[in-house]
Design the sequence.
């Protein structure tokens, strides 16, 4: 009737099993995290990199992000859609939305096709 409370051996350190973890981790795919705050940072970077193709050589063609999904040229007012996180920097696209007011721009932008 002895209740042996004290273990005979000290608890095994977790290292015994955890050393196998890296092998498993290498299989895990890096999934795109759409909810991460990093998404917005990416777009902020885009604004630094991208320029309106019409104005880039002349005035600079700096772009402003509108509605999270549109890049509006600060020089000529052309509007370039960001479709599925990919900015469509085509002059034809910029022309297409040029006359439309920023508040009327569709969200999300339609995919340019044809
Ligand atoms: Zn422009």
Sequence:
């Amino acid at each position: 009737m002895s209740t042996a409370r004290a273990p005979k051996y000290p608890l095994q350190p977790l290292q015994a099993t955890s050393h196998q973890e890296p092998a498993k981790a290498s299989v895990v795919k890096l999934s795109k995290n759409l909810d991460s705050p990093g998404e917005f940072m990416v777009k902020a970077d885009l604004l630094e990199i991208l320029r309106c193709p019409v104005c880039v050589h002349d005035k600079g063609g700096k772009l402003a992000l509108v509605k999270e999904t549109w890049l509006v040229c600060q020089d000529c007012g052309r509007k370039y859609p960001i479709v599925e996180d990919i900015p469509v920097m085509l002059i034809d696209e910029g022309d297409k939305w040029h006359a439309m007011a920023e508040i009327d721009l569709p969200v999300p932008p339609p995919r340019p096709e044809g």
Q: What stands out?
A: Residues 38-49 form the longest helix (12 residues). The helical segments are 15-18, 21-25, 38-49, 91-96. DSSP finds four helices and four strands in the chain.
